[in-house]
Write a structure and sequence with these properties.
heterodimer; A: 115 residues; mainly beta; 7-stranded mixed beta sheet; 11 strands; 0% helix; 48% strand
């Protein structure tokens, strides 16, 4: 199993450009999440999806949109990138069953630089 | 609102020694989970250990163990026989059972010296 995968690993954007970060999981998890991590801070939740077809705002949703394409995939879109969105973005997923139910597993992260 | 506090921005330990990282949290809930995640320079977030609040026994995973004090709302991580590969950022996190949100502390950077 690959677990949680993210593409791209690194991206440079100019202010105003748009892009979509892709995330996929092969663990048959229902819930998926997008976080951002800034220097000196823990991870902050941007959006999450408790199940296919549903999405909800997290702590810092402004400037982002998400799509839960199917059970495996959850994408994050920046419509008009701003320098304040320079960050490392993590996707995560979790399920409710098993020894580690309700435990989030993370992808490797996408480092985004907005100039 | 629930909060997680890691009061040690940086810690250091000698190889083979033991180190304890502190975490406190604030919640009015009684059923929840607590986690420690490790983030090495690769930036990958790796689950180290998980504790369920209704279990009195402290969780252990090989060289990693926790001291869970529910009344004091304290959840410290003890790393025994520290290794160079343990050098990383460590994040404490809280999750109320049955909810989707994971709340992170600001992290502790652990350095391991040979």
């Amino acid at each position: 199993n690959a677990g949680v995968t993210q593409t791209p690993k690194f991206q440079v954007l100019k202010t105003g450009q748009s892009m979509t970060l892709q995330c996929a999981q092969d663990m048959n998890h229902n819930s998926m999440y997008w976080y951002r991590q800034d220097p000196g801070m823990g991870l902050r939740l941007i959006y999450y999806s408790a199940s296919e077809g549903t999405t909800d705002k997290g702590e810092v949703p402004n400037g982002y949109n998400v799509s839960r394409l199917n059970k495996r995939e959850f994408s994050l879109r920046l419509e008009s990138a701003a320098p304040s969105q320079t960050s490392v973005y993590f996707c995560a997923s979790d399920g409710v069953r098993g020894r580690f139910g309700e435990t989030q597993y993370f992808g490797p992260g996408t480092r985004l630089l907005v100039l | 609102a629930q909060t997680v506090t890691q009061s040690q921005p940086e810690m250091s330990v000698q190889e083979a020694e033991t180190v304890t990282l502190s975490c406190t949290y604030d919640t009015s809930e009684s059923d929840y989970y607590l986690f420690w995640y490790k983030q090495p320079p690769s930036r990958q977030m790796i689950l180290v250990i998980r504790q369920e609040a209704y279990k009195q026994q402290n969780a252990t995973e090989n060289r990693f163990s926790v001291n869970f004090q529910k009344a004091a709302k304290s959840f410290s991580l003890k790393i025994s026989d520290s290794q160079l590969g343990d050098a990383a950022m460590y994040f404490c996190a809280y999750r109320r059972k049955g909810t989707d949100k994971l709340i992170f502390g600001t992290g502790t950077r652990l350095q391991v010296f040979p």
